[in-house]
Specification:
73% helix; 2 domains; two-stranded antiparallel sheet; ABC transporter involved in vitamin B12 uptake, BtuC; 2 strands; globular; 665 residues; mainly alpha
């Protein structure tokens, strides 16, 4: 397992910490009960219950089952996270990072729309099936890299983003049919009776029993694989059964209350840092701490909300993001992205025909643009516009095609600048949370300020992207911008965005539909003026590339080498930071915070054998433009008459691309 900087402490301290959290949650429960009933009326509410007394009803059938449900769900998620971490030897594994919740969401959406009979089995069964399939895909992808922490995180992140994009696409098309799924995704622990507790308790009891019976095999997983086999342990059987148990626990919780993020990570992580080194100690302390954390969070929300319902799942995600970043900084990075020197640094360049590939990419882009402008769907079927009809359609289609093209160019250049600046082939605005940071700023502006024009929004979005980019790089500076640190920071910021949006959806604000459409990356509302501005910015970024060529060639070599070659690190990084922020902020406003184009386009350019900075950047920009124009056309035609945002389509294309690439490796 990845080394952790843990001081030697008694394992009992972790259990004491868990009990302390439970005690604090009980104190908050008592305060909430006192707000409903006087202390001398508590006994009567539970023993001499009067069904006509509303306050007694609230205390007995609303507040108390909610508290018990928080303990059950927190403990189950802590148990699932602990088992995942033990099996995968990855202290960052939990249901959220392994795609369990994203798979559960998609499975429930599909069941509601096309297989409602499956819901008769229970939401938890459907959620378990979706989570199990997603987990198996993540593990299959990560198996090619030996289940290293970085590969598991990357596979889980890509699959989660792709599945969430698919789920968002379904929600946009079938908003009314899937409205209940929005409330489920918020992770609310609200209960109206004891039925939910009565249904969940025996199921989790069986999960706990199965885990206890597997204590010895799971403990032996701490040994090296050879030593574990020498004592008769079947590694494949133990790991498979343990993963099934963890997914079952996660699926039961997701089916009962929805998505509760980071609780499965927090409990085992805090227990380990509190001194619980042995698996037996963590098996007690991890679920105990998770249960205490969730109960304390939920009762705290009840206490401070003043009657306003705030879903616990949204709050745990916001609180868990800083925890993930802190935990990330305690891990001694043992991995670096393989083949960095070959992938980013031009030691053995194969640029014999860079002009050829640029011509091929431009020709393909021209064909795609022509198709996007001329080909569409009508109620009667597919249609190709020619002559006067084509001229009538161009004013309507050209602005969105231009916006998609320019956004693809800027995302690709932003990804290239980040990868060259950090020497990390996984760096991109989407993966590092830069676009999510810009989206959070715009989300706040939408709800707190009066409507603003698009140019002002672009400026605010770029400011948000710049602030987040500085924070991400500052947090990762000690690790030398290691892939796992950068990725986990992106996961944390993306989670904050998702939880904030989920909370707003849960509140039912009418403005949330506009925000959802924008965050999905729709070019539907782009005007001719908007397209001209975006195209001008994209052209400016292309002109800027040759002036940055020397910096882009030297920076991947490292700080020491760059300084010895006379490069001013402060000035060069500042310029690249400003350029990346402006590009990321502008494109986020047009195509949303997720698309994978900033990661995919530079990667595809390298696969073509192009290594030199200028040629690689221009080819990547052309590929990025091609991908976004293609995504916009697919989104306009695939579900006619509905419009699927280009950002969602690009995310799904990118996810499929990296899944296929992982299988090839």
């Amino acid at each position: 397992m990845t080394d952790l900087a843990i001081p030697r402490r008694s394992g009992n301290r972790a259990a004491v910490l868990g009990n302390l959290l439970l005690l604090l949650s009980l104190v908050l429960l008592a305060l909430n009960l006192r707000n409903l009933l006087p202390v001398n009326g508590w006994m009567e509410a539970f023993v001499g219950f009067d069904p006509v007394n509303l306050t007694q009803l609230m205390a007995r059938d609303v507040l108390m089952p909610r508290f018990v449900m928080s303990l059950l769900c927190g403990g189950a998620l802590g148990l699932a996270g602990l088992v995942f971490q033990q099996v995968l030897r990855n202290p960052l594994a939990e249901p959220g990072t392994l795609g369990v919740f994203a798979g559960a969401k998609c499975a429930l959406a599909i069941a509601i729309l096309w297989a409602p009979g499956a819901l008769a089995l229970g939401w938890d069964i459907v959620a378990f099936a979706g989570g199990m399939i997603a987990t198996l895909v993540v593990l299959l992808l990560a198996s090619r890299q030996g289940f290293s922490p970085l590969s598991v995180i990357l596979a889980g992140l890509i699959l989660s983003l792709s599945l969430n994009a698919f789920g968002s696409m379904l929600m946009l098309v079938h908003f009314e049919a899937l409205s209940d799924l929005y409330n489920w995704e918020a992770g609310s622990l609200v209960q109206n009776n004891w039925k939910g507790v009565q249904d969940l308790l025996p199921r989790l009891g069986l999960v706990l029993l199965a885990t206890v019976l597997m204590t010895r095999p799971l403990t032996l997983l701490d040994l090296e694989e050879g030593n574990a086999r020498s004592v008769g342990l079947s590694l494949a059987s133990v790991r498979t059964l343990a993963i099934v148990i963890a997914v079952v626990a996660s699926g039961f919780v997701a089916g009962a209350v929805g998505v509760i993020g980071f609780i499965g990570l927090a409990g085992p992580a805090i227990a380990r840092h509190a001194g619980a080194r042995r698996f037996r100690d963590r098996l007690l302390a991890g679920p105990l701490i998770s249960a205490g954390l969730l109960a304390l969070t939920d009762q705290g929300l009840v206490f401070v909300s003043g009657g306003m319902e705030i879903p616990a799942g949204a709050v745990t995600a916001v609180v868990g993001a800083p925890l993930l970043i802190w935990l990330m900084r305690t891990i001694r990075s043992s991995q670096r992205l393989p083949q960095t020197s070959g992938a980013i640094v031009a030691r053995h360049s194969c640029d014999g025909l860079p002009v050829f590939w640029i011509i091929v990419a431009l020709a393909t882009l021209a064909v795609v643009i022509s198709v996007a402008l001329a080909v569409g769907r009508l109620p009667e079927g597919w249609h190709i516009a020619l002559g006067d009809e084509f001229g009538d359609l161009v004013p309507w289609r050209l602005p969105r095609v231009t916006a998609a093209l320019a956004s693809g160019v800027m995302l690709a250049i932003a990804g290239m600048l980040m990868q060259r600046m950090t020497g990390n082939g996984l760096a991109s605005p989407e993966m590092l949370g830069i676009s999510s940071g810009a989206a959070i700023i715009l989300l706040l502006v939408t709800f707190l300020l009066p409507p603003l024009d698009r140019i002002t929004m672009m400026g605010l979005s770029s400011l948000g992207a710049g602030l987040v980019l500085v924070m991400v790089l500052w947090l990762s500076r000690r690790s030398g911008f290691s892939p796992e640190h950068l990725l986990l920071t992106g996961v944390a910021l993306s989670t904050v965005l998702g939880s904030t949006l989920t909370f707003l959806v849960f509140l039912g604000d009418v403005r949330v539909l506009r925000v959802l459409n924008w965050l999905s990356g729709s070019t539907y509302s782009v005007t001719a003026t908007d397209a001209m501005v975006i195209c001008f910015l994209a052209a400016g970024s292309l002109v800027l590339v040759p002036f940055l060529a020397r910096w882009l060639a030297i920076l991947p070599l490292g700080a020491a080498t760059s300084t010895s070659l006379g490069l001013s690190l402060g000035r060069s990084r500042l310029v690249l930071l400003l350029a990346t922020a402006a590009l990321s902020g502008t494109t986020t406003l047009i195509v949303g915070p997720l698309s994978f184009v900033g990661l995919m386009a530079p990667h595809m350019a390298r696969l073509l054998g192009i290594r030199r900075p200028i040629a690689q950047t221009y080819v990547a920009a052309t590929i990025g433009a091609l991908l976004m124009v293609l995504a916009d056309w697919i989104g306009r035609t695939i579900a006619f008459p509905w419009q699927i945002p280009a950002g969602l389509i690009a995310t799904m294309i990118g996810g499929a691309y990296f899944v296929a690439l992982s299988f090839r490796r």
